[in-house]
Structure formats: C-alpha cells, structure tokens
Amino acid sequence: MGNVVTNVRLTDGGTSYSATPTVDFTASVGGSGAVAVASVTPASVASVTITNGGTNLTGTPTINFVEVGVRVLRPSRRSPAA
Fold it and tell me: For the residues 50-57, what does the mean pLDDT come to?
C-alpha cells in the first residue's frame, strides 16, 4: 500500500466559491488514488475530509480545489503582433 494521505493542513480556504469544490490531488513523484471532500462555509473552504488516502505516494501531493462548472481562462502564449 505504501505511503498514503492521512491529513490535510488547510492554510488558505480561498474565497468566492459559489459551490462546493472538488478536491484534486496531484502526486509530486508517484502514487495515486487519494480522494477527499471539501466543506465550504459561506464562500471559502473550511475543512477537508480524506475519504481515501490513495496508494504508494512517494512525495507530498499538490492539492487543488476545483469548482465544477466554472471555466478557467488561461492567458494566451502567442507573441503579440509586430
């Protein structure tokens, strides 16, 4: 089973969530399968509950909160016209 996620230390709950975001774990080195549920109070994430610690994590995973149905815009990488 290897190393697993056992807790999440929430340092910034963000702002302006209109719905409960999903919790996305990205392994820095290896492993997979970690699952958690976020709890939101008025517009920020208040807590995170681990429902599956994943398997074989060899590094500290990055955690992102993703609000379903919200489109994320990224800046264009094209060079400006000369």
Answer: 89
For residue 73, the model assigns a pLDDT of 46
CA–CA separation, 18 and 71 (whole Å): 13
3-state SS track over the chain: CCCCCCCCCCCCCCCCCCCCCEEEEECCCCCEEEEEEEEEECCEEEEEEEEEEEECCCCCCEEEEECCCCCCCCCCCCCCCC
The CA distance from 49 to 31, in Å, is 19
- Cα 40-43-46 angle, rounded to 5 deg: 35
Type of residue at 60: T
pLDDT(60) > 90:
no
Dist CA 35 CA 49 (whole Å):
9
Whether 57 and 25 have beta carbons less than 8 Å apart is answered as no
